[in-house]
Design brief:
Length: 295
Amino acid sequence: MNFKKLITIIVSGVMLLSLSGCVNQHPDSKNNSSNSEKNRLVATSVSISQICDKLDIDLVGICESSNELPKRYENVTKVGMPMNPDLEILKSLNPDYVISPTTLKNDLEPKYSSSGIDSLFLNLKSLEGMYASISDLGEKFGKEEQAKKLVDEFNTFMEDYKSKNAGKQQPKVLILMGLPGSYIVATESSYVGNLVNLAGGINVYSDGDGQEFLSVNTEDMKSKEPDIILRTAHALPEQVKKMFADEFEKNDIWKHFKAVENGRVYDLDASLFNMSANFRYTEALQQLQGILYNE
């Protein structure tokens, strides 16, 4: 399958749900506000709604999702799915800013601009990017205290987490991301790749030139000889899990991977290992701790 087409499918499916923070604060001439209550804000992804909730920021619009949204926004106007928010509804809300993830910037920014809607895009491709975004939002909307608390909690957790792995042998890891019938490789530039990196794993496809995902043949994967193979899904996880099981059983090349021979192939919890950084990272990293180091 064409790689660009596959990425489009993945993003469309998943959004039902590097250290730059807020980017594209359009227009630049708009001054920051010291009080979020004076701003009419819309969050178009689940992760962003969770960030706003943690920062005690009110919203006038929120995305639709099958995933759980913060209860404080249960009566807030729904603006459509993350990949394709309803521009007419957005305009009717007269927002000061619509806040979306950078993974959708290329698709959404032209639409927002042509509709006269001002936007902010948050880097949620890594935990570092998410917390930089949190700091930026806190400063912009007068929630510095809440933002600092969240950042301090993250730094404290990571300092303790990394200390547990200091001096341990770092396993080489291959990360496969799948949809029913297709799978690609996740690099360090993806959120799952970021989690593996923070856990101390060495991604065998670390150099993706900034791309989150790569289309790679199994012969090239075999040449990398990973110690561990991680498999996850961005949509329909049960179907993807079955697809991976069939692929590894029927495609003979997998039997020659040392990771397969040694029983080091793991299906990750797709609710923890998805497209955007979120506050369930502690669970994800603890799961990786057990996988990477047999703990």
